[in-house]
Amino acid sequence: MKYLCLAYEEEQKLNGLSRSEWQALRQETLDYVEALRESGRLVTTYALQSATTASTLEVRNGEVWVTDGPFTETKEQLGGFFLIEVADHDEALQVAARWPSARIGSIEIRPVEEALRLERRYG
Q: What is the side-by-side order of every strand in the sheet holding 76-85?
């Protein structure tokens, strides 16, 4: 089963790391990504640029509204994601718990639906 893991981070906290702390966290993350890839559990992963580069788009009554930045103000922002394929939710939690930045942020783990439901969006 596939799970999307969303890594939330505080940009200020990450920017406050010393160069050596950042290099250690970065290398630990790259090593873990490689281990997941070798185990066949990693589908893909990407880091995202700062939320200050984001745009939020809404379409209401045929009109397009674009706002610079994320939709809501929050300390934590979506910093990246990794898509994994594992046996079950428990294994997804185990994989996410070892993601290095989980120690200074949070990881949201959500099962992926392979197709949209016929009856309604959420069951």
A: 42-47, 76-85, 2-10, 106-111
CATH architecture of 2-111: 2-Layer Sandwich (3.30)
Is 70 exceeded by the pLDDT of residue 91?
Answer: yes
DSSP-derived 3-state class of residue 4: strand
3 by DSSP, 3-state: which? strand
Residues across the chain: 123
The three-class DSSP label of residue 57 is strand
Task: Give the pTM.
Answer: 0.88
Q: Minimal CA–CA distance to 33: which of 91, 84, 106, 77? A: 84
State how far Cα 40 lies from the chain centre.
Answer: 19
Task: Name the residue ranges covered by the structural domains of the chain.
Answer: 2-111
And the tokens for 46?
Answer: 């990407």
